[in-house]
Each structure stands twice: as C-alpha cells, then as structure tokens.
Amino acid sequence: MEVTMDPLFLAWSYFRRRKFQQCSDICSKILEDSPYDQAAWSLKTRALTEMVYIDEIEVDQEGIAEMMLDESSIAQVARPGTSLRLPGTSHGAGPTPAVRPMTQSGRPITGFVRPSTQSGRPGTMEQAIRTPRTASTARPITSASGRFVRLGTTLFEYIFHHENDVKNALDLAAQATEHAQFKDWWWKVQLGKCYYRLGLHRESEKQFRSALNHHEAVDTYLYLAKVYQRIDQPITALNLFKQGLDRFPGEVTLLTGIARIHEEMNNIPSATEYYKDVLKQDNTHVEAIACIGSNHFYTDQPEIALRFYRRLLQMGVYNCQLYNNLGLCCFYAQQYDMTLSSFERALALAANDEEQADVWYNIGHVAVGIADLTLAYQCFKLSLAFNNDHAEAYNNLAVLELRKGRVEQSKAFLQTAASLAPHMYEPHFNLATLSEKIGDLQSSYTAAQKSEDDFPEHVDTQQLLRDLRQHFAAL
C-alpha cells in the first residue's frame, strides 16, 4: 500500500522550500473540498504574499513623480557630511573622480547594486527617465525579521503586498491599533509603513518612534532609519543605528546600514571598517565582501580585491558582474592568462544589453592597456551597439578618433558623452583640450569650467583655465 503525504503538510513543505506557486495550487485543491479550512486559507495567503513580497526595509523605490515633484526643502549649503542629496559634502576621506567613477549625485560607484544608490536623485526629468531603478533587495529573503508572528496579521500582509492596496491596509492597521488600545507595537509599525508608502514621512516617524517605546525590534530601527534617510538626515540615521547596536550588539543589518550611509557620504574608510565588522559577524555576507573588494580595487590593490571576488565565486555567486570584476582584477594584477577567459564568461552570462555593453567597454579598456588600439576601437563600437547611451565608450572613442586625425568626429563624440553624463569630468576636459588645440578658445573655456564644477581638484583643468584666462587678459 502506497503511503501518500498529507496535502497540507506537502503544501507547507513547498512553502518552506520557497516554491510558492505549487504551495498555492495544493491549498486551492484543499479549499475546493474544505472551504472553511483556516490553515489552508492562511497558508495560501502567505504563499500569494511571498510571491510578490518586496522587503520594505531594503527597497526604496522613488518614482519619477516623487523625485521631480518632491516639495520637501533641504539646506542649499549643507554642512560637510550632513546631506545625502548634495554632492561635495563628504568628509574629504573619499576617492576622487580620477580614481573611482562617480554617480550623477556625486557619490562613488558602490561595489554592490542597491536601489537608489547608483544614481541618487537626478537633477532633470531627462536624467530621471534614464535612471535605472530596481525592485531587487540586497537583504537575504529568508532573513528572520519577525514577520507572520500571528495568523491575524496575514490579512494585512496580503492586502499591503499582494493587492498593493495601501488605503485599505492603512484602515485595517488603524482599526487594529485602536482595538489594541494603542499598545500593540506591531500594528504601529504597519501604520508607519503605510504612512511611508503614502509619502507622509513625519507621521511615519511618529508611529515608528511610538513602536520603539513599546517594544525594541531590529526591523523598527531599520524602518525608522529609512525614514531619516529619505528626509535627508543621515546623521540622525547613524545615531539611531548605533542606538540599535547598543540594544542588539553585533546585529548585521544595523552594521550594514551604518556602512551604507558612510559609503553614500563618500566616507569610504569608515564604510570599509563597518563592512569588516559585518564580516566578523557573518563571513558570507555578499554585500560586505563585494564592497570591500571594490574598495581594494580602487585603492590600487587588485590582488587583494581578487581574493574577495574569488570568495564570492566560492560561495556560489555566479553572474556577469562578478566575472567582469574578476577580469579587471586579473588584468591589473598582471594575471593575463585569466583575464580574457573571465570576460568571455561574463559575456556568456550577460542578461541584457546594458551588461553586454559594460563588458565590451572593459575589454576595450584592457585593449588600450596592451596598446591594441584596433581591438579597443572595435570593442567600444560594440559597447555602443548594445547601449547607445554609454557615455564612457563615447569618450574613449573620441580619444581614439583624435589619434586618427578625425577632429570633427572626435568633437561630436565628446559632445555626446558630455550631454549623456554631465556628472563626468572627462568628456568636458577632453572637449576643452580639443577646442583649445583647434583655436576655439571660448568653447574650451566653457567646457573647462564644467570640468572644474564636476572635479574641482583636477590639476590639468586648473592649468588649462589659467592659460585661457592669461590669453584672454592679453587680448
């Protein structure tokens, strides 16, 4: 006689293995026979919720409307180290654009793609449309955060995440809070989440603060810090994280939050120290390993960065970006036998045209390093074939065109690069140098000023501006 597994137990097994569709299908069959089975209803709502669940602590998706129509005012001249939105307010300990690429908000490119960290807040609607946004979360989906503590909360999670009906979720949370005589910290957190989603940040702050007074939980600290980051108060968020660490020593998510804020404020040494603290608590933390590896690479230590990226490979991280970074580290560490094979693997794993463009651009960069300018030219052309908005490829192509004597083509490429990435100083400086050589001094001066705005410490730009001013004074 064949022994079959109980359907509800099988559904629960699927749920534990994160096979939510199979879990939901089995629950539906159970409910066809027993429509009033509460356990099956509860498990099915949880499965449907998890299928579309987005970690609210991690993902901070600002739509174009929120970014461009935000009426909250910030200080136009913020003190150094007090603002995430204004470039040039770092502690001065961060890398310069000459060493590490910058985002359009003035922050260095991070070693780990997170929502709202690669591009910051764009200044124009055109930049906002180009801004990449993602719903992925850097936090492990299976992290323990106290969700689904009781069956009664599953309805709220279903309405909030699966149906995305914030208004009804807010009404439910408000009624539940009132029913609990305003003493239930969990429902106050849910109220705060609803207010945050609606853009009512001060009301959200009040609910999270009240929840912390009733019960201190890690998630509540993370939600409240997220509010402070949205209203551009990173110092308050840092103090809150440290307060949470006093209550929960060694908590990885709190340490990671501190490291991220330091990194966004261009205080890379402090960020690296906190990422190292994260690895002391969790030596398989992908984000910390990637960010430390990236920092070593940009501080001219490719051999050490290679060790960190190899560690990620040993942990099972297998994607285009990792092999791309491995290829660059191998090249700068003079391990040429592994360079091209790493880039070949990166091309095979590329999931979209943008990734293909980045890999071909880096192969072109390697070709420049070995003085194969023909290969470099072809690689940069391929990069533009996959992504026509790749500003770095336009800039490098312009230099190669100038070496061939094609001045007008070079100038056109530089103007395109400058319009696509106004936050980069290289196209502006190259355009200024080219214009100065062909005698267009006014255009040269304008481009040099833009280069100085993007990178005030650039010595060559300052020298060019001095020469141009002396020439204008002599006239």
TrEMBL record:
Listed A to Z, the keywords are: TPR repeat
Q: Which residues form the signal peptide?
A: none
Q: Name one GO cellular component term.
A: non-motile cilium
Note the segments forming the TPR repeats: 320-353
Gene3D superfamilies annotated for this entry?
Answer: Tetratricopeptide repeat domain
Q: Pfam families, alphabetically?
A: TPR_8
The source's superkingdom equals Eukaryota
The record ties this protein, via CDD domains, to:
TTC8_N (cd21341)
The UniProt entry, under InterPro entries, shows: BBS8, TPR-like_helical_dom_sf, TPR_rpt
Which residues lie within the region annotated Disordered? Answer: 86-137
Question: SUPFAM superfamilies annotated for this entry?
Answer: TPR-like (SSF48452)
The GO annotation for biological process reads: non-motile cilium assembly
Q: What is this protein called?
A: Tetratricopeptide repeat domain 8
Question: Where does this protein come from, organism-wise?
Answer: Gadus morhua (Atlantic cod)
User: Lineage, please?
Assistant: Eukaryota, Metazoa, Chordata, Craniata, Vertebrata
